Amino acid sequence: MAVIGIDLGTTNSLAAVYRNGKIEQIPNGLGEYLTPSVVSFDNENVIVGAIAKECLVTNPGETAAAFKRKMGTDQKITLGEKSFLPQELSALVLKQLKEDAEKYLGEPVEEAVISVPAYFNDNQRAATKEAGLLAGLKVERLVNEPSAAALAGRMKLEEEGVCLVFDFGGGTLDVSVVDIFENIIEIVAVSGDNQLGGNDFDRKIAEYLCASHNMDFDGLEPGVQAALLRLAEKSKKELTHQETVLIHYELDGEDIGVFLNNEVLVKCCEDLFARAGRTVERALRDSGYHAEDLADIILVGGSSKMPVVPYFLTSFMGRKPTLAGSPDEIVAHGAGIYAGIKERKEDLKDILLTDICPFTLGVEVNNRSGDRRSIFSPVIERNSVLPSANTQRYTNVYDGQSKVVLRVYQGEEYYCEDNLFLGELELPIQPMPAGHACIRVTFSYDINGILVVDACEGEEKNTAQKVFISQNLRLSKQEIDAKIKELETYKNRNGRNVHSDLLLARGKRVFAETTGLNRQHIGELLRQYERAFADGDRENGVRLQKMLEDFLEQFEK
Question: Is 145 labeled as catalytic in the residue annotation?
Fold first, then answer.
């Protein structure tokens, strides 16, 4: 049984496998490699991918996208009368990728290595593993997206040395400083923004269009918002090979439009670039390197294809970056290679990838200033190479104290309440005057996200230990089993003629977006095509399919 690598993206997802000495991308039912991370429901049917993406306009109330941004939270996404956690919707995407992989490979797939943003915290990583479990996948290992990109791109570099990987996807930005030497890939420092990506550029473009016509984007109907965001995404892509594009949309019988170029886009997105700049600065500061020390700046992620991104980095860093292969696919390639390493493939045995702890781990200590908020005391600092271990010493707070409760946190903030609480450990101690106890706390953190906390008093008179496992999931085993059964009740619409279903979904989306003669014409074509499909009239169906495709191509130019 093969182990596959999966890039579970905010916008698109992709699976890859390492076999016969090379990496292979796994196609979906449409023969495409990228599967949109979109889920839609039609009664008890679930639709995943490109067809679901069309439903964002025609059926927005039962369609969801960009749910990766909510991973690790308890925020539920309501689709019709149903509510889902982000990992449940992610599980449906993973399940589709698993089924596509099994069809392509001709064998069962029960295990995967999944890439995650380097700046995902413990809750977000646990939720990702939980999504894999709900999809029927064993997920022992997560790999940071820029680490996967560095792994896949190591042979594409013109020279070895220290590189900055700028991984800009649809929903997240990761910046990593990586030292590459022969077969050794060492992650030196990471920084990120889990709420910054290409989707934010789409929204800025849509808001710019609305503002040009004295409209409030937030006040529009969900279907109209989805249509404008789709147009914004399309115009953003067109700016990669055109100097100026016209965005226009027919709303309530009125054609609204605006011209867009890269100069306007930069101005619209000044605040987004400022956030990206701060993320780059932090990664460089933590690494100890400067821009002039770098051998290369590598662009990764679909959003890096926007011309404004290399322009920004050239201005900000004083040097031109390099686009690494196909930026949409390189993370999945790296995850696939990592899966091959996990399988102990002979030709990968000499590759060594070292990763780091993206967030600081520490304990709560008493605040002596009179402020009731407790203070965060770091034990393992962020960017420590994994596996990592460190010991800190603490003491008792008041006279006669008989126990210490060690509350463990993850984060960078001064006050504990602003960091992520991971759990607690209780250590009994000998009663003595305040400040006289010697309490040693040791953190050990490994590449699988397992944190072991050991505490002892003095010469180990009293000891305590607790294992904090990131796969210590938010749902109980009973809840997991129940949700797996629930997800299995939804019939997968993608098993039908997906090309025909996609054409119908695309036609219905255009029908919803237009009015007048065009709407009448597309409506009549859809009715005739669906009738031919239902009657099994293949010859007429093929003719109508060509007419429908030609009309849509002409209309969407």
Answer: yes
